[in-house]
């Protein structure tokens, strides 16, 4: 709890992004949210942990809240934050090369660009990448609940809660919430759905020990509830269901088409 404020993005910087008009010189919320959805897709593609995604978003928002960033640089910044988070969370043998991440993300930058951006981000964040996030508190609170409940342990599905947190991460506004508050909001909403008095009483104790006020919890819970309702609607395009779109040149497309038709028909193998 003492560390969470240290790793939160500057609220003033986030507010400037929220108010920014959409043009080539200023970064707006829609562009930031779209980049976070790209990070979610990258996380799924490489089979990385939820922690990698949440940490990448934290690094991204902390940097964006400090620096005035042009939209044209956002792609390189996003890939760099993803790579930095992967180094903290994932096994070294599972981390793809910078060239591979650039290729898969279709980021219009070079490995040299990525190295330069990494140096800038590292210096601005004082090389502090291993942060206390909402996922940290979600795991902590979930463990506390399971240790003190007599109900079946599978009642509170951690995978579902993590997916809901990722949906919240795709909205800039939730970067303003304290990580402990955001985690508790997700748990209380799930307990409301389950209609469990025992679980609710345990969360009241967690709220008290975490020194979270009722007003803070109610304010953010309403926003989280609306976000999850929007996310569960059929109109919502979910990042975890997005397919990678490959952009190829006309020449490459022509070669692919020619190679398809040049494949000889093979005779049927008799049974």
Automatic annotation (TrEMBL):
Keyword tags: Cell cycle, Cell division, Cyclin, Cytoplasm, Mitosis
Compartments in which it is found: Cytoplasm
Gene Ontology annotations for the cellular component aspect, listed alphabetically: cytoplasm
Pfam families associated with the record: Cyclin_N
Annotated SUPFAM superfamilies: Cyclin-like
CDD domains membership: CYCLIN_CCNG2
Domain (Cyclin-like): residue spans on this chain: 37-123
Coiled coil spans: none
Example GO biological process: cell division
Main location: cytoplasm
Gene3D superfamilies in UniProt: Cyclin-like (1.10.472.10)
The family this protein is said to belong to: Belongs to the cyclin family. Cyclin G subfamily.
Function: May play a role in growth regulation and in negative regulation of cell cycle progression.
Entry protein name: Cyclin-G2
Species: Pterocles gutturalis
